Amino acid sequence: MKVQEKKSQKHHIRWMLVCYDALIYLMSAILLLILYGGMDKLTTAGIAEQMIISAICILFVRMIGKIYNQVWRYGGIQCYMRLIFTDGIAFVLYLGLELILPLQKITFARMLSLVSLNLLGALTIRMMYRYAYKCGNKDNAWGRFLAKLLRAFSGIDAGKEKEVQKIKVAIIGAGRVGVGLAEELLNNEQASYIPRCFIDINKEKVGREIQGIPVWSENDVTLEKLEDFEVQEIIFAIPTMETEKRKELYDYYKNAGYKVKIYDYPTMHAAGGKMYLREFDIEELLFRKPLVVADENTNAYYRDKVVLITGGGGSIGSELCRQMARMKPKQLVILDIYENGAYDVQQELKIAYKGKLDLQVEIASITNRKAMARVFEEYHPQIVINAAAHKHVPLMEHNCIEAIENNVFGTKNMVDLCEEYGAERFMMVSTDKAVNPTNVMGATKRMCEMIVQSASTHGHVKYSATRFGNVLGSAGSVIPLFKRQIANGGPVTITDKRIIRYFMTIPEASQLVLQSGAMAKNGELFVLDMGKPVKIMDLAENMIRLSGVHGIEIIEDLDREKSCMRNCW
């Protein structure tokens, strides 16, 4: 209903402007065709002919030029130049009809004066309108006079002082999300932003107004037009936009010097999180849209089960906890040796679910069999997801004993306890570095897979393992490293310019683990189809370009052993 009211108001304002232009023209015609006699005396019929022909020419060309579709309170130099240009064409048309039609003739100078005086009047009322809108918020006699004048002649209130000081934005997307953002910004006096226009491709919306804000076609938007409307930032409000299209528009507006933001959920969805205005994550611009692999069957499998997630405070483990909480388990037990990570996830889920989730946190190491036996004795988990592991490749080369103790013997403890306490399913989080391993971390994870697969041949628990490649944003990922190096002014170091890697997001990785666990029969090893590979060199170049920093070098780190390639999980 609100939108319809605004649309009707749009038409009211447009035709009101037509009426004011008609009044200006009438005054110009009376002055130059009636009061000013001149050498070429006109009869009453001649005056009527000249007035009708000139008025039709001016109104017709202005309509064609969409002069009355513009929002003049935000209009800049381009709007005024368009008006001058259309009236120039109208004069040429008027002159042509004057020569062709059998009318009472007037001089060229008189015709030009008529059109010019009318144009001057049209420009004047528009400038006065914009001036009154801008300055009618002053808390003095002049400001109050302008506000009353504006209200009387246009029905619009003057822009508030806070609005003048706000950041002007263009919203890409005039759908539900974009309109919702605009409403929120317009209704919140404390908001730092004020929407100036929508940019959309829907022909039914283009050329109209929503909430008093014009909708422009993506193809018609120029940088000059945005500058005339004083747009300072661009906001993407289309969550479903294709990644390639989003990146293309991002590059266009970023290269033009605009700040670009997005109104969406964060890349890492917080439990119970809401959409908010934020900066783009570089991951969103470099890679494909995350796949949604979890389905209703997966949700049903975990519902009303007691689930234990080891390493639940880590990057992968915490996302597993978030997604598991949405599936309504009977009880969720988060286990981690690092108390800060576990505490953060605990507080996030408590706030999001407000007591509706039976959540427990245990601080223990999977290498401590007695501590783990106590946890199993207390909770008797039906499903165990083992995400606890040392996974930092170079560090594990130097600390190989700790890698074996934590990864191999920790997994062995978990497998033995699952059998001892009658768990239904054990799911292991593995890595693609377990394939023909060339480093300690990969070798330990391969040993873990062998333990799990061996147990599946003689145990009573159903076992599965899930492999995936480099996870964006996880602890040890190459992207945070590149970000730090770029922030410090470079250089960006890579092991080898020829390296290619497959990437996935944390939500993708977590969903794969949960779905594979739900569908596994026993002993399977699942691998995700990760799409196209990415060259590490291209990744580094794109991150430098998207960061807007210049002069950053990319060098090969020759001191790093090439067998210890930096990218983890």
Largest sheet: 7 strands, mixed
- What class, by secondary structure content? alpha/beta
**Terminal-residue CA separation:** 51 Å
The shape is elongated
How many beta-strand runs?
A: 20
Count, helices: 20
Give the proportion of residues in helices.
40-55%
Q: Numbering strands along the chain, what is their spatial order in the largest sheet?
A: 3-4-2-1-5-6-7
What is the gyration radius calculated from CA atoms?
Answer: 34 Å
How much beta, percentage-wise? 15-25%
Poorly predicted ranges:
1-13, 267-272, 560-569
Mean pLDDT: 80
Compact description:
The protein has 569 residues and is an alpha/beta fold.
Detailed description of the structure:
The protein is of the alpha/beta class and 569 residues long. The chain is built from 20 helices and 20 strands. Helix 1 (2-35) runs antiparallel to helix 4 (108-135), helix 3 (77-100) packs antiparallel against helix 4 (108-135) and helix 14 (369-379) runs parallel beside helix 16 (400-420). The radius of gyration is 34 Å and the shape is elongated.
List keywords for this structure.
alpha/beta; seven-stranded parallel β-sheet; single chain; seven-stranded mixed β-sheet; 20 helices; disordered C terminus; 569 residues
Furnish the topology, listing elements before pairings.
Blueprint: H1 2-35, H2 44-64, H3 77-100, H4 108-135, H5 141-154, H6 161-165, E1 167-172, H7 176-187, E2 193-200, E3 209-210, E4 213-217, H8 223-228, E5 233-236, H9 243-255, E6 259-264, E7 276-279, H10 282-286, H11 296-302, E8 306-310, H12 315-326, E9 331-336, H13 339-353, E10 359-363, H14 369-379, E11 383-386, H15 393-398, H16 400-420, E12 425-429, H17 440-458, E13 462-467, E14 470-472, H18 478-487, E15 492-494, E16 500-501, E17 503-505, H19 506-519, E18 524-527, E19 534-535, H20 536-547, E20 554-556
Parallel strand pairs: 1-2, 1-5, 2-4, 5-6, 8-9, 8-11, 9-10, 11-12, 12-13, 13-18, 14-17, 15-20
Antiparallel strand pairs: 3-4, 6-7, 16-19
